Task: structure prediction
Amino acid sequence: MNKCWKIAVIGSGPAGFYAAGELFRQKSWEIKVDMFERLPTPFGLVRGGVAPDHQKIKSVQKIYTRIAENENFRFFGNVEIGRDILKADLLEHYDAVIYSVGSPADRELGIPGEDLSGSHSATEFVAWYNGHPDFCDYKFDLSARNAFVIGIGNVALDVARILAKTHEELAKTDIADYALEALRASQLEDIWLVGRRGPLQAAFSPAELREFMELADADVLVKKNMLELDAESQQILEMDASNDTKKNIEILMQISKKSVSGKKRRVHFLFLTSPVEISGNKKVEKITLVRNQLVKRKDGSISKEEIRIEKGRIE
Ligand SMILES: Cc1cc2nc3c(=O)[nH]c(=O)nc-3n(C[C@H](O)[C@H](O)[C@H](O)COP(=O)(O)OP(=O)(O)OC[C@H]3O[C@@H](n4cnc5c(N)ncnc54)[C@H](O)[C@@H]3O)c2cc1C
Result:
């Protein structure tokens, strides 16, 4: 009879479950999988990252649950490898170890004032509103009128959308109860999404962008000058742009033509803009932004180059 392979999978996010699923799919050997997770609950960032109003995406958990139902699968929650169990222990008891522990670290902006109170990473805010046990005691001051979200990818759009939604919209999701209550008291009026490159280079997807046009009590604004493309970008749009990029530009154009209807909140898209300093007395009071321009690298790719600091100052 073939040997039975005992595999330890560390981490229960998508990578861990798909690895386990693939192992069970092959027919050559008998496989037993033990999955170790430092949290009491499985599914990694599908539970703690994906936005609570995106239940369709979260439904991927059903696939993972089916994998977990395999009789040769065991789940050990609340076990941190490196703290509760060491690598040497794993190697003694398993034929192979798969590390699928995700990427918990943030990339810092590297600008002065980033560590002031009131400046947070998306990891902290997202984990907080998703009820992640490591972050549920965090406090976010939602008494300010303006919030700046730095970066314009799908995670930034998630954060801006959660900040912009009404209590009634959020109450329909599986957002953590304490976050629902804290956001109910939010005084935010303007949410600024700040992207260092142009609309053509934005990393969000059209579906996420379109959701901003459907917010119950928030207008979305893009100034027409934010969508003006230089000759190089115009050529890329016409010749090489992906369908998603073309759709993004179409939607942004539609948004730029919409008139503001006087809703309680506004979400602003700023392209070709970077923060250079966050300042204030012990807490965030001011952010200094600069305008960028795109330049073509020698290899043909487009990068951003800061063109002016003082002139483009927005405080
Ligand atoms: C805010 C946000 C929104 C997102 N939205 C989407 C989306 O809409 N659609 C989409 O496709 N993707 C989305 N993603 C990306 C997606 O969540 C990740 O690509 C995916 O979860 C990565 O899977 P992973 O298994 O590599 O890591 P993770 O999901 O991070 O899982 C790693 C797991 O390992 C555990 N772990 C870490 N260290 C140890 C240890 N020492 N011992 C035991 N366990 C450990 C962690 O607790 C965690 O559960 C989003 C991500 C974020 C942050």
User: Anything to note?
Assistant: The CA atoms of residues 296 and 302 lie 5 Å apart. Confidence is low (pLDDT under 50) at residues 307-315.
